[in-house]
Write a structure and sequence with these properties.
Layout: H1 2-18, H2 46-50
């Protein structure tokens, strides 16, 4: 019974997998036709989102933001809620 299921699984998944390109066969070369980033994609509200909850004047320790480019960063996304939400992404920060 197991051999039967393995054969059926292979027959079903093989055509599906063949439709996707194989990447990473030569890690030293970028695959032909791979997308490239020409310039960072920043919307008009990028700084407002990136620095949400950060008091002005902006600290020098965040100067790396100008070099951020299109790399992923968790800095411009909401983190954990509750007492860990120090930048007020989930609820407004109240002054104590």
């Amino acid at each position: 019974m197991r051999a039967y299921l393995v054969v059926i699984g292979a027959l079903v998944t093989t055509p599906v997998l063949a439709a996707y390109p194989i990447a990473g066969l030569n890690p030293a070369e970028r695959p032909a036709g791979a997308p490239t980033i020409k310039e960072p994609a920043r919307g008009a509200d990028w700084e407002a989102v990136f620095f949400k909850g950060v008091a002005k004047p902006l600290p020098a320790s965040l100067s790396w933001s100008r070099d951020q480019g299109s790399w992923y960063t968790p800095f411009n996304r909401p983190g954990m809620p509750g007492r860990f939400d120090i930048r007020g992404w989930h609820t407004p920060v109240t002054k104590k």
